[in-house]
Specification:
By secondary structure, the chain is α+β, with helices and mostly antiparallel strands. The two termini are 18 Å apart. It is built from five helices and eight strands; from the N terminus they run E-E-H-E-E-H-E-E-H-E-E-H-H. It is globular, with a radius of gyration of 15 Å. The protein is 24% helix and 28% strand.
Length: 172
Amino acid sequence: MTHHPGKGAGYRPAVGIMLLNGRGQVLVGRRILVARRTDMASLPAWQMPQGGIDPGETPRQAALRELAEEIGTCNAEIIAESRAWMTYDLPAELASSVWGGRYRGQRQKWFVMRFTGRDADIDVATKHPEFDAWRWVAPEQLSELIVSFKRQLYIDILAEFREHCRCGDPGG
């Protein structure tokens, strides 16, 4: 993973959200497309909410919109923002088909948010669902649940946001 202070050519501008509950656990959703594909059955399908930044939208606006679009609620408050933009590259076999082949990966601004609602407020059966299930997990589990090409990104996110999620060793 690389960190780019300026715009990354070939990277889709996006945001990511580490949503924390009162117990310091992180919300992850199971990606529908990965979970349903038989050729990807062995890949982890769980990830934190994330998505693209629309034209004219700030990263903060995009993060709150993506939260509502992906988990059906925006009952959250932003408590921290990543210092830098973070990128990840798609594997070559996916780069030509994901996002119409226009991007080699994503350039993301990450946010830590405190969930202010109840679990019953979370509904992944949204208008355009991306997840078919969700759960709260210990921050230390994140790197085990994500696809390998995003693993270093998640380790770096945990390292930066450690103080907010009360997590242990980000690599462990």
